[in-house]
């Protein structure tokens, strides 16, 4: 009986791992879309507006990835 129980748990564990991987994949897509939105928003700002946030145009990619964009 124990062998049967273990055999039934293994597929459930694999299924849970697969479900987690799919969820992480879609979370990554969502995060990438949000980063693109923040980049677009910041890139439309004037240099003075960026400077008020402590950024330059050259800082934008790293600021977006590191989460320093302040949006």
Description of the structure:
It is a single chain. The chain is mostly helical and 71 residues long. It has a domain of 48 residues. The protein is 77% helix and 0% strand. The chain contains three helices and no strands. It starts with a helix and ends in a 5-residue tail after the last helix. 6% of the residues are buried.
Structure in a nutshell:
This protein has helices at 2-43, 47-52, 60-66. By secondary structure, it is an all-alpha fold.
Order of helices and strands: HHH
The largest β sheet comes out as: none
**What is the percentage of strand-forming residues?**
under 5%
Instruction: Tell the overall outline.
Output: rod-shaped
Distance between the termini: 57 Å
Average of the residue pLDDT scores: 86
- The residue ranges in which pLDDT falls below 50 over 5 or more consecutive positions are none
By secondary-structure content and strand pairing, the structural class works out as: mainly alpha
How many strand elements?
A: 0
What is the helix fraction of residues, given as a range? over 70%
Tally of helical runs: 3
Radius of gyration: 22 Å
């Amino acid at each position: 009986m124990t062998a049967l129980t273990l055999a039934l748990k293994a597929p459930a564990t694999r299924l849970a791992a697969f479900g987690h991987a799919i969820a992480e994949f879609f979370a990554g897509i969502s995060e990438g879309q949000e980063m693109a939105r923040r980049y677009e928003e910041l890139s439309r700002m004037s240099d003075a507006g960026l400077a008020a946030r402590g950024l330059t145009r050259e800082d934008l990619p790293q600021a977006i990835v590191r989460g320093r964009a302040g949006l």
